[in-house]
Write a structure and sequence with these properties.
The protein is an alpha/beta fold and 462 residues long. It has 2 domains: 240 residues, Rossmann fold; 209 residues, 3-Layer(aba) Sandwich (Rossmann fold). It contains 16 helices and 16 strands. The strands form 2 sheets. It has a 10-stranded mixed β-sheet, with helices on both faces. Helix 2 crosses helix 3, helix 10 packs across helix 14 and helix 12 crosses helix 13. Adenosine-5'-diphosphate-glucose binds next to helix 1 and helix 13.
Length: 462
């Protein structure tokens, strides 16, 4: 087995209390098995970039990180990654900022990462790059003479060609991807958009999963990410989970709970969700004093103004809706701005009769899968899922909705809350089987195999 080099913007080492996302756990497991290391930004800033690498090893997982300059962080991370590519890749060209300094900062940081990284890569290593922060890094590694197999996995959607062409120098970015041997997407929709772009903007040709542009060929394939299913089931049984389950049971009394869990991000459709819940309350007076929406949304990317704006807007909306509908003994929305541990989340999901997962656009959305995994199979809740989440492709037994249409979402909430047990069990059974079998370990084994199976660097001419 070849060594594995994982590269992502941030690195996640094993944590003593075990509180970690499924992706981190899966990549750590892969690194333990294959050896190798995880490379990325330390999250720290230094006055002057030196390229010096800090190594650390915890619990059999080795990491190597570098510090960045404040200007790097502003232009690469807060700039091109989070103000340009993130909105663009989530179809929000109205929010995308196209600023030359962001683009040059992005290329500079990818170069800066490639310099120390190429020295650590040994012949035969398999290299796996993650996400939109690092698209051009393979072309930088190739310039340093790295001939290893390199794969790239995109966790977000890939936008339609008509939107992508609004990005200045879009050809340059996409051409740089032909330094990879394999590119993985969450769904066939994002894959098709990528192929469409390559054919129509770059004059490329497609043969099955193989795309050729300028004589360079790569494999582009669908490989949907899953959750750490087993670990998640265990999380639901810990004392912390039991405690919050008990507290929730007491505080809910006879109320039916709907749960939403998201990073506070405009792509998650939180404003539209509150709007839909308000529509539901307006149409269903029987829900008053009987239903509560628990929305958990810890702030993220606070340096970016659009994120601060979403936060303000949501505070205002939750306050207004609660003000309009609350009674002395009932508040319709419990809006919480902090993160919860995995155990606590598992307990909250299980207590909820409805999981409301309505992003406007999402690469996958793991909350949908976690909600299903956490249900009691004998009395499962119902998942209401946006058709614009990547997860919808695998989760057809959810109640699929258009998150922009408040009446449609309101109707789905009503259907979910009144669904007979037999129908809930039937849907849950099918969903559960998918979440269990296509878990995060299945995903990473499949993707690593795709990289390993690539012909010895097929991206090169000849
Ligand atoms: P994210 O946009 O961060 O990730 P998502 O898949 O929804 O999105 O969630 C990732 C994890 O964060 C989940 O495990 C969830 O439990 C956790 N999380 C979310 N809100 C939380 C909260 N309030 N408290 C505690 N934990 C919380 C990107 C893409 C997604 C894609 C993932 C993985 O945007 O589309 O599914 O990567 O590829």
């Amino acid at each position: 087995m070849s060594r594995l080099i994982v590269v992502s913007n941030r690195v996640s080492l094993p944590h003593p209390d075990g509180a970690q996302g499924g992706l981190a756990v899966a990549l750590q497991a892969a690194l333990r098995e294959a050896g190798g290391l995880w490379f990325g930004w330390s999250g720290r800033e230094v006055e002057k970039f030196t390229g010096s690498v800090s190594f650390e090893e915890i619990d059999g997982v080795r990491s190597a990180v570098v510090d960045l300059e404040p200007q790097d962080v502003e232009e690469y991370y807060n700039g091109f990654a989070n103000r340009t590519l993130w909105p663009l890749f989530h179809y929000r060209i109205d929010l995308a900022k196209y600023n030359r300094s962001f683009g040059s900062g992005y290329e500079r940081v990818n170069k800066r990462f490639a310099e120390p990284l190429h020295v650590m890569i040994e012949p035969g290593d398999t290299v796996w790059i993650n996400d939109y922060h690092l698209i051009p890094i393979a072309s930088q590694l190739r310039e340093h003479g790295v001939n290893n197999r390199i794969g790239f996995f995109l966790h977000t959607p890939w936008p339609p060609t008509r939107l992508l062409v609004s990005l200045p120098y879009h050809e340059r970015l996409v051409r740089s991807m032909f330094a990879y041997d394999v590119i993985g997407f969450q769904t066939s929709e994002w894959l098709e958009s990528f192929l469409h772009y390559c054919q129509n903007e770059l004059g490329g040709t497609v043969d099955g999963e193989y795309v050729t542009v300028d004589g360079k060929t790569l494999r582009a394939a669908v490989c949907p990410i899953g959750i750490d299913f087993k670990n998640f089931l265990e999380a639901a049984k810990t004392p912390a989970a039991q405690e919050i389950a008990e507290r929730t049971r007491i505080s809910l009394r006879q109320l039916s709970m709907i749960v939403g869990v998201d990073r506070l991000d405009y792509s998650k459709g939180l404003e539209e969700r509150l709007n839909s819940f308000e529509t539901y309350l307006n149409r269903h007076t029987e829900a008053h004093r009987a239903v509560v929406l628990v929305q958990i949304a810890p702030p993220s990317r606070g340096e970016v103004e659009q994120y601060r704006n979403v936060r303000e807007k949501l505070n205002e909306m939750a306050g207004r809706i609660n003000g309009a509908f609350a009674e002395v003994d009932w508040t319709p929305i419990r809006y919480v701005n902090r993160g919860y541990s995995r155990d606590e989340l598992a307990a909250l999901y299980r207590a909820a009769k409805v999981g409301l997962v309505t992003p406007l656009r999402d690469g996958m959305n793991l909350v949908a899968k976690e909600y299903v995994a956490a249900q009691d199979p004998e009395d499962p809740g119902v998942l209401v899922l946006s058709r614009f989440a990547g997860a919808a492709a695998q989760m057809q037994e959810a109640l699929l909705v258009n998150p922009y249409a408040p009446e449609e979402v309101a109707d789905a909430i009503h259907t979910a809350l009144t669904m007979p047990l037999a129908e809930r069990k039937r849907r849950h059974n099918i969903l559960l089987e998918g979440v269990r079998s296509e878990d995060v370990h299945w995903w990473r084994e499949r993707f690593v195999r795709m990289i390993e199976e690539a012909p010895a660097h097929i991206g090169q001419d000849g």
